[in-house]
Specification:
Blueprint: E1 7-9, E2 14-19, E3 22-30, E4 35-42, H1 52-67, E5 70-73, H2 76-84
Parallel strand pairs: 4-5
Antiparallel strand pairs: 1-2, 2-3, 3-4
Length: about 100
């Protein structure tokens, strides 16, 4: 599988993959306190079942880690991804 290029569209507050004429995305809210809330993951129906959402989640989490942000996962897909990949749970804010 080829490596997809992650785009951080700060104007729209979303991470994106552009695949042909389609766009997969994870929407977020970022605070001035260094917290990032992942709110929604969306993959167009023609791209479902190809591991795109998981690839997107992996790259987004790596970017969050690189930026030193603290994660608040609100999106059910991201919550499930973190359950399957516990190594990323270190990014989650503990309250």
């Amino acid at each position: 599988m080829e490596k997809r290029e992650l785009v951080n569209n700060t104007e729209e507050s979303q991470y994106e993959f552009h695949i042909g004429k389609y766009m997969a995305k994870i929407e977020y809210i970022i605070t001035q306190k260094g917290e990032i809330y992942l709110t929604h993951t969306e993959v167009p129906i023609p791209l479902e079942g190809q591991g795109i959402a998981s690839d997107l989640a992996e790259q987004v989490l790596a970017d969050i880690d690189k930026q030193g942000l603290r994660l608040v996962p609100l999106c059910p897909f991201i919550v499930g991804y973190l359950q399957k990949h516990p190594d990323w749970r270190r990014l989650v804010i503990r309250k």
